[in-house]
Amino acid sequence: MKVLLTGGRGQLGRDIALALSGRIPPGGTRASLHRPPGLDRQTGVELVAPDHATMPVDNRLAVLTLVSELRPDVIIHSAAMTAVDACESAPDTAFQVNALGTRHLAEAASRVGAHLVYISTDYVFDGRSRRPYREWDDPGPLSVYGRSKLAGERECPFGATIVRTAWLAGVSGANLVKATLEQGTGSTPLRFVDDQRGSPTFTADLAPAVCTLALERLPGVFHVTNGGEATRFEVARETLALSGGDPDRVVPITTAELDPPRAAQRPEYSVLDNAALRLSGLPLLPDWHEGLERLIAALGSPSVEGGTR
């Protein structure tokens, strides 16, 4: 099976590439590899992961040309403009990449008969719910980023797989866990927002689940996050506690107290219920505390590039 992966150099994309090759992403476990039947360590997957220069997703001709040449069986589309605040000042760029780019990949997939998998976000919801959002709840994004990602969902053809996830952290790229660890020593108070609740999710757990959905070509919308919910304050505090730091250094603040204020409005409550996975009898990801503990261990391992602290 030939798989085309966009965003292969991103935080999630790197772990998807590892999982597709039968390797365990840093911070993952063998149990987290939700392999479909017959998928062993030797997956039989031929992975192609072009960088942005080779195939900019917002360039229709480039996308159609490369996909026509490669003729993949599956396209996993994880490339996106994910700088939430930057999207507010560049809405056309956000929609060009996140929405129109998905349109191009959907068109290309239909031409070669490939199954499309699109990675989306909890930010498609407005945060007014007080129960976890199910896949069938109506979206109502508050930000340009959320609107552009929802537009990308709507560009996906019938039968495609849409994976909504949230609050990602892994060994690659910038994230809340790494930022907290980098400030782990010292006595300066660390201020984190405590009035936004979401689903902390670890790419080492998410990536194998994405691969299962992709290789099984399961259609429809799936919420895929680690279990449980938290605020960023709670995640930062737990990060210091697990890494041997002082969790009392973490100080809760409200969104209104952020200095400087953020350009994009975040949903106050964007916890995702993994209902489609659960009701389909598919494996659920472990609790976020487990994923966090494994990520901290991986970041402290000399075997992980840039991981020693």
Give the N-to-C terminal Cα separation.
39 Å
- Strands of the widest sheet, in order across it, are 2-1-3-4-5-10
Low-confidence stretches: 36-41
CA radius of gyration: 19 Å
Instruction: Give the SSE string.
Output: EHEHEHHEHEEHEEEHEEHEHH
Mean pLDDT: 92
CATH superfamily: NAD(P)-binding Rossmann-like Domain
**Helix content estimate:** 25-40%
Structural class: alpha/beta
Silhouette: globular
| Overall strand count | 12
Name given to the CATH architecture: 3-Layer(aba) Sandwich
Under CATH at level 1, the class stands as: Alpha Beta
Task: Report a brief summary of the structure.
By secondary structure, the chain is α/β, with parallel strands linked by helices. It contains ten helices and twelve strands. The longest helix is centred in the N-terminal third of the chain and has 22 residues, at 91-112.
Structure characterization notes:
- This protein has 309 residues and is of the alpha/beta class.
- The chain has a single domain (2-175, 199-229, 267-287), classed as 3-Layer(aba) Sandwich (Rossmann fold), CATH 3.40.50.
- 35% of the residues lie in helices and 14% in strands.
- It has ten helices and twelve strands.
- The protein has helices at residues 11-20, 60-70, 84-89, 91-112, 144-155, 176-182, 203-215, 232-242, 275-279, 288-299; strands at residues 2-6, 46-48, 74-77, 115-121, 161-165, 168-169, 190-193, 197-198, 201-202, 220-223, 230-231, 250-253.
- The strands form four sheets. It has a six-stranded parallel β-sheet, with helices on both faces. Strands 6-9 form a two-stranded parallel sheet.
- α5 links the parallel β4 and β5.
- α1 crosses α7 (203-215).
- The longest helix is centred in the first third of the chain and has 22 residues, at 91-112.
- The radius of gyration is 19 Å and the shape is globular.
- Residues 36-41 have low confidence and may be disordered.
